[in-house]
Write a structure and sequence with these properties.
Blueprint (H helix, E strand, L loop, with lengths): L4 H18 L7 H12 L7 H7 L4 H13 L3 E5 L7 E5 L1 H7 L4 H9 L3 H25 L22
Antiparallel strand pairs: 1-2
Amino acid sequence: MRPSARATAEVMAQVLRTTASLAFTDGLNPAQWAALRYFAQANASACNVVAFARHHGTTKGTASQTIAALLKKDLLERHPSETDRRSIRLTLTARGRTTLANDPLNELVAAIDGLAPAQHGALAAGLDELLRTLLSRRTQSGARAGDPPGASGHADRNGAAAD
């Protein structure tokens, strides 16, 4: 028997709450963990405040605050651009890489990895379709007041917003 959509949504909400609560660890908040992940994976040309803000669908000011906290905690470091004196490239420090090894998202990764291959495949496909549907509905209804620029951008299978 197929579960109700409401029951599935409630379980998904509980998974999201549990995952979000894990992200307040090691003195970091969820936005800071997301930034560490971003800078660990982004190509060099995208390791700046503007690209990070765009990728996460947030404002430059909010992104700057997150990055400032990570710089203060010695998890990120600034490097002047070799081609544009106005630009700064951000990279993880050794401490940032060590901290990222304890990423709380690893708990969710391990839980997903424990699924049978068919379950994992169905979950990934279902979540991808769910995300596309939600983003499509959001785009059709227009951006809501107060949404950050780029908040209705498409995201890939890994949850990374595409430009």
